[in-house]
Amino acid sequence: VMCTLFPTINAQYEILADDATPLGQRLGILGKSKVPFIVTGMQLCPENERRLVVFGRSEVRVLLLNPSHSGIVLHLDLDFVKANEDTRDCILHCHWLAGSQSQLCVCSSKIIRFYDVSIGKQKSMPLKEYVLGSKNTLRSSCLAPRGEMSSRLFLQLENGRLHFIDLKLSQGKVEWPGY
Fewer CB within 10 Å of terminal CB in the chain, N or C? Predict the structure, then answer.
């Protein structure tokens, strides 16, 4: 028997005090587009709300949305090869770097890669990558802006350790100490 101190709520049919319409019925569909993989996450670029990155377990696609966000104008696929073709290696998160609409960090369970996703290319190769040691596995990551052109990337490893990397954009290139 599973017990909880909190009441169970079905958010799909939650009635708000100011409106008797369920939330799911008030959400509008701006447009639809197919992606050739199962999407596990997405991240909108804070510097340009027309750029959206969508990712699956081993695929990443950057989309340029039209001004009304109702369709896709262009797309760019990122070249993502798993670490040593490890079948357990999967993409966990994608992060837009602070102050840029073309620098993207892709964190998988074994590799952290940085891409320049300037629209106009057919496919983007990683500019830099950091391979975690064979005994280390990334479980989660988040990016915190620390000014106009710098960020701190937090990494939580499988063993519970929390690490961070200070990132800086300089002349369109990603830099971090010790690399």
Answer: N
Q: Which residue has the tokens 């993207």?
A: 104
Distance of CA 19 to the CA centre of its chain: 33
Q: Which two tokens stand for residue 152?
A: 């701190």
Query: The whole model's pTM is what?
Result: 0.77
Helices (H) and strands (E) in the chain, counts: 1, 13
Both structure tokens of 167: 């990132």
Cα(152)–Cα(144) distance, rounded to whole angstroms?
Answer: 5
Q: Which residue type is seen at 128?
A: K
Write out pLDDT tens, residues 61-99: 998 888 888 888 888 888 776 655 656 788 999 999 888
Residue range 109-161, pLDDT digits in tens: 988 998 888 766 667 778 788 888 778 889 999 999 888 888 899 999 998 89
CB burial readout 43-59, b (16+ within 10 A) else e = bebeeeebbbbbbbeeb
**Residue/partner pairs of 135-139 with CB below 8 Å, 24 or more apart:** 137/109, 137/110, 138/92, 138/107, 138/108, 138/109, 138/110, 138/112, 139/92, 139/109
Residue 167 and residue 174 in contact, taking contact as beta carbons nearer than 8 Å: yes
